[in-house]
Amino acid sequence: MPPAPPSTAAAAAAQQLESLLRRLATLSHYKQFHAHLLTSGHLLSSPPLRARFLDRVALSPHDAALPYALLLLRSLPAPATNDLNAALRGLAASPQPARSLLLLAGRLLPAPAPPRPRLDALSLSFALKAAARCSDAVATVQLHAILVRLGVAADVRLMTTLLDSYAKCGDLPSARKVFDEMPVRDVATWNALLAGLAQGTEPNLALALFHRLAGSFPELLPREEPNDVTIVAALSACAQLGALQDGLGVHEFARKIGAEYNVRVCNALIDMYSKCGSLSRALEVFHAMKLEDRTLVSYNATIQALSTHGHGADAMRLFDEMPTWIEPDEVTYLAVLGGCNHAGLVDEGRRVFDSMRVPPNMKHYGTVVDLLGRAGRLDEAHDMIMRMPFPADIVLWQTMLGAAKMHGNVELAELAATNLAELGSNVDGDYVLLSNVYASKARWADVGRVRDTMRSNDVRKVPGFSYTEIDGVMHKFINGDKEHPRWREIYRALDDIVSRISELGYEPETSNVLHDIGEEEKQYALSYHSEKLAIAFGLISTPPGETIRVIKNLRICGDCHVVAKLISKAYGRVIIIRDRARFHRFEDGQCSCRDYW
User: Fold this and answer.
1) What pLDDT is stored for residue 513 in this prediction?
2) What is the Cα Rg of the chain in Å?
3) Which region holds residue 529: left if phi is over 0, alpha if psi is between -120 and 50, else beta?
4) Among 259, 304, 255, CA closest to 279
5) Tens of pLDDT along 86-112?
6) Residue 136 contacts by C-beta under 8 Å, 6 or more apart in sequence?
7) What is the pTM of this model?
8) PPR repeat boundaries (predicted)?
9) What is the rounded average pLDDT of the residues 551-571?
10) Nearby residues of 191 by Cβ (< 8 Å), 6 or more positions away
11) How many CA atoms lie within 13 A of 18 on its CB side?
12) Tell me, what DSSP letter sits at residue 198?
């Protein structure tokens, strides 16, 4: 048989190498393959094979593989665009994505550099993903300019990546502008803007965009339909806003498009229902999932839901029941510790902390310090701070100050306040707590000194505000609010509330009002806290017996907590308040926190 023509033999050799390439698994394999490409001449004669090899090495999980890929790229006398793209892709996905931008700028190539390969849409796509991971807004703008100059702005996928990068860098106006100017959009484009708005500062706009898409998606997406990513983004917006009615609507849309049992959708539903105050619905979704479909995220979301709603023992039980094939992570432990903290399960919390299989971070230590402090074990809490492998931050010392105030420990309160001052904290709550500790010991001169310090430091109070949802519309209230169209009715309702709960023994708790004013003025200041206004509006805007849900940006104060309990008894209502730390469910004069908060 005559020998095969050279071209056929070369093609056969290249095919064998392609087959071998798919089986490379170790750095040693890569080096041997590289050596063969060099000795056989394929490194220069087979650019497609070389680029695929570079791509495989650059994306390898081995620590030394990516540097090796860059070394290979630098050794090429004339790297092609595909060679550059392979390295850009690897760097963009690496722990140091900023190096992808350096490579694009030519700074990782040798000097004098070889002829620079021409950039294409794929090059810019990888660079934009790197910019998004770095939150590098300046690089995103520069890449946008290059994109326009290269004339690839008609590429829908590339423009979607650009939009996504703007959104992840926090430049939502630019992201919206890119979206509005795209003549053609696919479902990924809609999803990118939805997710950017929902996870950024515009969840209301995200919901408006979702409703626009859901209402006419056959026209807006003639060849596609919304998918699980669309649903997850919309649910994220609902969770952030606490918009239960919108959340129910998104859930119904998920059923309509057949995404209801998608695992990511289920996880997002658990989170959304929990953050909207409907723990029962969150648990329904979790228990409806097949055991084999549940992921770590499923358990984390459900444990967190139980914890923030005050069901610490149930959170512990679910944690203990996690399948052995699912390994807890730092989020799991934080959720369980939070449940122990909210429920006062001190020994259980210590057991969980001592048995952690991941290194505890500042939040884990902070939760245990809070747990010990609330329980009155102040020396243990302080010892834990002193034994941490890293210095305590502002939040941790604020936690310690709160515990000292709760138990009237002046020495510890002063220590915490000193550390807060050294760390640069200038929050009004710190001064209120310290002043209250002094006041509880009748140290009025020290109370005056704290007030003077507040004046000299120009300490501003963080404004409190609350939301409540009525018929799918969110209503916002601030302390002493008279901007609402029905404010006169709301104030009359508050007068009625005070009259009715006074019959149940209500007396205003004015100890947390740090103002140099009389007792009557303090009571007036308390009467119109934003959560009271939201509850009063809920009472006059909903039928008897309907649950009232309120979202508060700060921690609920002691007086509002008492008032909410008494309103639930006097008016026969369930009131659910989500504050900065947890959920409070008030029913028949009791709160789910059992006054341990």
Assistant:
1) 52
2) 30
3) beta
4) 304
5) 999 999 999 999 999 998 887 656 655
6) 98, 101, 130, 169
7) 0.85
8) 155-189, 262-296
9) 93
10) 227, 229, 230, 233
11) 10
12) H
